[in-house]
User: Fold this.
Amino acid sequence: MQERLNYMKIAPELIGAVLNLKKAVDRSGLDHRLIHLVNLRASQINGCSYCVDMHTREARRDGESAQRVHLVSAWRESPLYTERERAALAWTERLTNISDGPVEDALYAEMLEHFSEEELVQLSVLVGLINVWNRIAIPFRSVHPVVSDQEIAAA
Assistant:
């Protein structure tokens, strides 16, 4: 696979604005491990290899276990995730697949059991943001780095 274009080079001001939103989300107070899980799950749904690779490596770098990273695509069947993380992953899936219909009242009510209204806004912006990144990386064929198993283990 070959990259179609370097969007950061082509539109640095616009991509800079997206990067600034990322910085704001990172500073919002959401747990960074939760941010990694959300970014990874949305990227899996969207099929963005660049983002799946990046968020997998970032999660591992920040202390996430290999098992939790490997099982995020099957989080419903795994006991490794907290109820708060499960709610966030359900919200991520629903918002990433928003064209399937409206967000159900039951899911919204469940979210408010685990997140404050402010956190729910933060989480929703996070989900929107990773979907923006996926929609930039996929059509321009951003290519993830190819690394050896030894390099991954050393990271």
The two ends are 25 Å apart (CA to CA). The chain has nine helices and no strands. The mean pLDDT is 94. The first helix runs from residue 7 to 10.
